[in-house]
Design a protein that fits this description.
The protein contains five helices and seven strands, in the order ββββαααβαβαβ. It is of the alpha+beta class. The chain has a single domain, classed as 60s Ribosomal Protein L30, Chain: A. A five-stranded mixed beta sheet has the order 4-1-7-5-6. The longest helix is centred in the middle third of the chain and has 14 residues, at 75-88. It is globular, with a radius of gyration of 15 Å. The structure holds magnesium ion. Magnesium ion binds at residues 10, 12, 35, 41, 44.
């Protein structure tokens, strides 16, 4: 059996007047993430980790932000499409470990809902998805609440 690891990283700016979508769910907050899509930074990092594990380029290659088709698109659709790309290539999902760096809002109360949402979209076991949240101790762009960053590691298998 072939075992492959992948890593993904993404950043989006926080602005007023946008909904905050994270981990596939909408959170109540005074600001939202800015992007061509719904800017779900967690899902974007996860997609890049999945694509990286399969050596299939990156999210911008498959879902370009210059394409009007992806304007304000629900990132859950991109995640579902990414999983289809991997399954079509014969890969099976192993597990994912994701970290989100954000000062506010507090993510702890929402982690279980995000995990359940991602598991359903990906059609995988919720036990195989880990989501962790951290602040950056008020340091840097995440600490100043100018944006959020997400990091994802995944394992996939074939054969
Ligand atoms: Mg992104």
């Amino acid at each position: 059996m072939k075992i492959r690891v992948g890593f993904g990283y993404d950043v989006h700016r926080l602005v007023e007047g946008r909904d905050l979508w994270l981990g596939g769910i909408k959170l109540e907050h005074t600001m939202g993430l800015l992007g061509h899509s719904d800017a779900d930074v967690l899902i974007h990092a996860l997609c890049d980790a999945l694509l990286g594990a399969a050596n299939m380029r990156d999210i911008g290659y498959h879902f370009p932000d210059t394409d009007p088709k992806y304007k304000d698109v629900d990132s859950k659709l991109l995640l579902a499409d990414t999983m289809k790309l991997l399954r079509d290539a014969g890969y099976e999902f192993g597990n994912a470990d994701i970290t989100v760096a954000a000062e506010r809002p507090k993510l702890k109360p929402h982690i279980d809902a995000m995990k359940a949402c991602l598991a359903e979209v990906m059609q995988v076991d919720v036990e195989d998805i880990s989501i962790k949240a951290t602040t950056t101790e008020k340091l840097g762009f995440t600490g100043r609440q100018e944006g959020m960053a997400a990091y994802a590691t995944v394992l996939i298998t074939k054969g």
